[in-house]
Design brief:
Structural class of chain A: alpha+beta
Oligomer: heterodimer
Number of domains of chain B: 2
Largest sheet of chain A: 3 strands, antiparallel
Shape of chain B: globular
Distance between the termini of chain A: 19 Å
CATH architecture of the largest domain in chain B: 3-Layer(aba) Sandwich
Number of helices of chain B: 14
Strand order of the largest sheet of chain A: 1-2-3
Number of domains of chain A: 1
Chain lengths: 146, 410
């Protein structure tokens, strides 16, 4: 995938003007992670009510791909049904970004946001909903992302 | 002047193309350098013609292998002007050398409330071992700060030395991020006056400038082969003989013993006491060929070439609008390492873009997160040079930066 395809207007726009940037005062889900290889950092906050994501925000530092990916993911899950959000896959994220043939080093940048989301949902499912089976499944999905 | 054309011909990898048809511009030399054919041949020659374990067997292959392995020790001693060959301990790399000191000398000599001092521009390998040690012992780890010019604030060392609690000062002779050349002799002089031991990380300096340990007068010195044309997996710990003699072994096993009984063991002589198990024979031999190669060019010439290319690159780079360069702007005060940022382009994005033009640079925190915090950046881009790099390559690099600017519309 060439740089001209990666750094399209839309990616740069989300990088420079991230939507849903910030923190929630009392989040139901608060999850932070970083990519030790490049130092990308991401924290995601979610509020969940009646099985819906009613609010979501993120903060972070990193490359255009990681930050645009996080911002676009927040838009993707805002107002969505909890079950739908639980099922989000790697392909969904890459489709959403329009980035499909990223090399092995850069795909981690694109998927950090999903990893943070899934890890956050793991804590939510295991600690608040006591749904161990779903929690473990999502934990496995998170660690299998890269 | 060195003959770059001849030198480049010795490096087969420089002829390869990347991204189909792009000439390779390799500017990631602070991470690892390329290897000349002489080094590659010396390693394959060992495996092809005299592969054997060393030191104990009496057959001819073993004698040849032992002689080749030990000859590298002599070359290293001469290269860094060590007084005794038995002060040269082969390890896996700089990281292992520093850990060896922390785990042996450190555990024996550092106690509760003692102070170990390092600097804000250290590589993680000269921070984390000291964190582990000071936490275990209830000791303190303190830092010499970095000023806005990218140089150490040496006055800060004095107040710690005054406490009488400092056991060790550990610093790098050249920053792997800023390229700053440390005023090492001044630090050693201050420490000697107070009887404080000094460890110098030479990973970035030994490959690029003449290092004279007898002049430097430190107590421990560490560096790696792979950053100076040699293979990965080989490094050197040099330490004063009297220190090595009193240090307990790091690894126990074969070759490091004199006699082993059921419950007691006596240690082998130096340096073998610290080289347990079959060492990395082939790569130590390859390291010898790398030293031969550098000696043939001459370290003064290596340094001269790097000052010239660094000066050229600093000049060109500072003309690119939106570029921020970190570290000293005077090329004689820094090694061939330039860290920079370009506008709001994240270093990873920048490295991805210019890689398409065949230009290999480093991006990220360069294993120096403490320094990144000090500079208040999450990452930088880093171009680093060596003997085979040319001004034409710098031009190609600059041209590629303009393409990145276009893509990011800055």
């Amino acid at each position: 995938m060439s740089s001209a395809d990666i750094y399209r207007e839309i990616i740069l726009d989300y990088y420079r003007n991230p939507r849903n940037y910030g923190k929630l005062p009392n989040p139901d889900v608060a999850q932070r992670d970083s990519n030790p290889l490049c130092g990308d950092e991401l924290e995601m906050h979610l509020n969940i009510k009646d099985n819906k994501v009613v609010d979501v925000k993120f903060t972070g530092k990193g490359c255009a791909i990681s930050q645009a990916s996080a911002s676009m993911l927040t838009e993707l899950i805002m107002g969505k049904d909890f079950e739908t959000v639980k099922k989000l896959s790697k392909e969904d994220i890459l489709d959403n970004l329009g980035l499909h043939d990223l090399g092995p080093a850069r795909i981690k940048c694109a998927l950090l946001s999903l990893k943070v989301l899934k890890s956050g949902l793991y804590s939510y499912l295991s600690e608040k909903l006591k749904d161990t089976a779903s929690a473990n499944k999502i934990k496995e999905e998170a660690s299998g992302l890269y | 002047m060195i003959n770059i054309e001849n030198i480049r011909n010795d490096f087969p990898i420089l002829k390869r193309k990347v991204h189909k048809d792009k000439a390779l511009v390799y500017f990631d030399n602070a991470a690892t350098t390329q290897k000349p054919i002489q080094v590659i041949n010396s390693i394959s020659n060992y495996y092809l013609n005299y592969n054997s374990n060393i030191h104990r067997a009496v057959h001819e292959l073993a004698e040849e292998a032992t002689a080749a392995y030990e000859s590298t020790r002599d070359k290293v001693a001469k290269f860094i002007n060590a007084k005794n060959r038995e002060e040269i301990v082969f390890v896996r790399g700089t990281t292992e050398a520093i850990n060896l000191v922390a785990y042996t000398w450190g555990r024996q000599n550092v106690g509760k409330d003692d102070i170990i001092i390092t600097t804000e521009y250290e590589h993680h390998s000269n921070i984390v071992p000291w964190q582990l040690l000071t936490k275990e012992k209830g000791a303190r780890l303190e830092y010499i700060g970095v000023d806005d010019n990218g140089e150490l604030i040496l006055d800060q060392l004095d107040k710690y030395l005054e406490t009488g609690k400092v056991k060790l000062v550990a610093f790098s002779q050249m920053s792997n991020v800023l390229g700053t050349i440390t005023d090492s002799e001044e630090i050693v002089r201050k420490c000697k006056k107070k009887g404080v031991r000094v460890l110098v990380d030479g990973a970035q300096s030994v490959p690029h400038m003449k290092v004279d340990l007898q002049k430097l007068d430190c107590d421990f010195f560490a560096f790696s082969a792979h950053k100076m044309l040699g293979p990965t997996g080989v490094g050197v710990l040099w330490a004063r003989k009297e220190l090595l003699e009193n240090m307990v072994p790091f690894n126990g096993g074969g070759d490091m013993i004199r006699e082993v009984h059921k419950y007691e063991t006596s240690w082998n002589d130096l340096p073998y006491k610290f080289e347990a198990g079959t060492p990395n024979i082939a790569d130590v031999i390859g390291f010898g060929a790398a030293i031969d190669y550098l000696e043939k060019i001459g370290m003064d010439k290596v340094r001269e070439h790097e000052i010239e290319i660094t000066k050229y690159a600093l000049d060109k780079l500072s003309q690119v609008k939106g570029v921020k360069i970190y570290g000293p702007m005077n090329a004689t005060k820094r090694g061939g390492v330039i860290s920079f940022n370009l506008g709001d382009i994240h270093p990873h994005d920048l490295a991805t873009i210019i890689d398409e033009d065949g230009i290999a640079i480093r991006s990220g925190h360069h294993c120096a997160q403490v320094l990144m915090e000090r500079l208040d950046v999450s990452a930088t881009s880093r171009a680093s040079f060596y003997i085979y790099n040319t001004k034409d390559e710098v031009d190609a690099f600059i041209k590629s930066l303009y393409r990145a600017k276009e893509l990011f519309k800055i």
